[in-house]
Amino acid sequence: MNNIKIGLIIGSLRADSYSRKVAQFLTKVAPPPLQLEIIELNNLSMYNQDLEKDLPAQWSAFRNQIKSCTGIIFVTPEYNRSIPGVLKNAIDIGSRPISENAWKDKPAGIVSISPGVMGAFGANHHLRQCLVFLNVAAMPQPEVYLGKVNTFFNENGVLINEDSKHFLEAFMQAYKIWLSRFANL
Fold first, then answer.
1. Sheet holding 144-147, edge to edge
2. How far apart, in Å, are the Cα atoms of 164 and each of 82, 143, 168?
3. What is the number of structural domains in the chain?
4. Torsion angles phi and psi, residue 7, rounded to 5
5. What is the pTM of this model?
6. 50-84 b/e with 16+ CB inside 10 Å = b?
């Protein structure tokens, strides 16, 4: 069976972020034939419609990466009860021009994380609101809000919280089922 490429978007630029650590765990537990590929956001300049005339190479490469994926999984922290600016910028770059929306028809999964108790509930739902307009079907269940994520890892960045490991594995299984509603698996 051929691998199915799933884009993994991390809403944090920090190299040692909890979002990146969770994303890296997801790459290890993705069920076959899903193959998760991190799509980096750190080279994207701020969206400016004037630049569409002479498209930045990074924008074009990013859009092509999104288009080449069968689905997308977002792992994001919450900044001020919303998604980080870098994630919103990536969404905007991938969605323009609207007639060439790279996100269109990509089944998505969302994992939101926070050192706080609420697990980035606000970011999760704000992201869902953005995706509705872009015709992205976000998996409704299980919802993933990882609160107190700062306690989940050891000093080497390895996920040691057993409940979270099992929950994220179940999330990946559910995402595979969700994806099968839209793609031939």
1. 34-39, 4-10, 71-77, 108-114, 144-147
2. 23, 13, 6
3. 1
4. -75, 135
5. 0.96
6. eeeeeebeebeebbebbeebbbbbbbbbbbeebbb
Q: What is the pLDDT of residue 183?
A: 86
Place of tokens 């706080």: 116
Residue recorded with tokens 């919802």: 143
**What is the span of the domain harbouring residue 138?**
4-180
Calculate the dihedral angle through the C-alpha atoms of 49, 87, 90, 5, rounding to the nearest 10 degrees: -170
The structure tokens listed for 134 are 């872009």
> Which CATH number does the domain housing residue 164 bear?
3.40.50.360
Calpha distance 14→28 (Å, rounded): 20
Residue 185 inside a domain? The answer is: no
Distance CA(9)–CA(109), nearest Å, equals: 10
Give me the pLDDT at residue 1, please. Answer: 60
